[in-house]
Design brief:
By secondary structure, the chain is an all-alpha fold. It contains nine helices and no strands.
Length: 215
């Protein structure tokens, strides 16, 4: 009897952890339009090439939201209370506005954030797997898209800002130093899930610096 109770507790803990992880994924993906609006209002000069990539990114993120929403709804249900929680949040870009100075800074932020997200989603695959093969397949598709976004941002940075790549270590250090600022519906730097941590952030920062090292 005691063993069965302990098993029930472990299963309940696993279900709660899985729901919390998916909720974090859901709200982040839903915040992509907020970041898009902020980029269109910020003073950074962003090129046509950037906006073309951005529109493709935004369309992908909308699909991600729909996919994660369906996984969450199928596993845990959906009601007016959850909808209100989702809609009641308000964005505040002020604490991270210094990361959007120019196009190279924005590309570094996007690439870093995608890289950390990939690592986080991969780390949570055992949780997604508990919801069945369809849920795991959907989340793996999201991971693949995030990897493509990372490569797109790196390619743009290399192609359009080759002469400024010496600035990358300082830009990445500034991003890394901003980790831990409370998330405020900004899409980027939403890393509150326990799967994240300093080691993951440092690894992502170091990898991005290597990928953008001047030739």
């Amino acid at each position: 009897m005691e063993s069965a109770l302990r098993m029930d507790e472990r299963e309940a803990d696993l279900a709660a952890r899985t729901e919390a992880a998916l909720w974090d994924d859901l709200i982040t993906e839903s915040d992509a339009p907020r970041l898009s609006r902020f980029l269109r209002s910020c003073p950074a000069q962003l090129s046509d090439a950037f906006w073309s990539a951005h529109e493709a990114w935004l369309a992908d993120e909308q699909r991600h939201f729909e996919a994660v929403f369906e996984v969450y709804r199928s596993a845990f249900g959906w009601d007016a209370t959850r909808q209100e929680r989702l809609e009641a949040r308000r964005e505040d870009f002020a604490p991270i506005a210094h990361l959007f100075d120019d196009e190279l800074a924005v590309l570094c932020l996007g690439a870093y954030d995608e890289l950390v997200t990939i690592r986080g989603y991969r780390g949570n695959l055992p949780l997604y797997r508990t919801l069945g093969s369809e849920a795991e397949r959907a989340m793996r598709a999201v991971i693949a898209d995030e990897g493509r976004h990372f490569r797109t941002f790196v390619k743009l940075a290399r192609g359009r800002h080759a002469e400024d790549l010496g600035r990358v270590p300082a830009l990445v250090a500034r991003i890394r130093a901003t980790e831990g600022v409370p998330y405020a519906a900004t899409f980027v730097l939403d890393h509150d899930d326990p799967v994240y941590g300093d080691a993951l952030y440092d690894e992502a920062a170091e990898l991005l610096i290597r990928r953008l090292r001047p030739r």
